[in-house]
Amino acid sequence: MNVLRMGESTQGQIMDVREDRSVRVNRQHPWVIRYQFRVNGQDYEGKVRTLNPVGASLQTGNMVWILYAPDTPQWNAIYPHP
Questions:
Q1: How far is CA 11 from CA 21, 24, 27, 68, in A?
Q2: Which residues of 28-48 are buried (b: 16+ CB within 10 A; e: fewer)?
Q3: For the segment 18-45, what is each residue's pLDDT rounded down to a tens digit?
Q4: Residue (of 49, 57, 47) closest to 19 by Cα position
Q5: Helix/strand/coil for 4
Q6: Is 16 helix (H, G, I), strand (E, B) or coil?
Q7: How many CB atoms lie within 10 A of CB 82?
Q8: In this structure, what DSSP letter does residue 52 have?
Q9: Can you name the residues that pair with 69 across neighbouring β-strands?
Q10: How far apart are alpha carbons 79 and 30 in whole angstroms?
Q11: Which run of H or E residues covers position 18?
């Protein structure tokens, strides 16, 4: 939650989008979106799971906004949450 309230933003790129068929929630398989971004010359990765349909804007190679904690970029999230 602190990342959403006090995080800094940068652009990142979606590296992979896949359906996790090993998990089922309400008869649906969640989507796993893996992304990469750079802060102060260092690359970071993150991932998010969602049950929402993945639209055209959340496809491999697309640019997305990332919010990250300035002191610990390992704490990050796609914004807005898919």
A1: 29, 31, 33, 11
A2: eebbbbebebeeeeeebebeb
A3: 999 999 999 999 999 999 999 999 999 9
A4: 49
A5: helix
A6: strand
A7: 18
A8: S
A9: 72
A10: 18
A11: strand 8-19
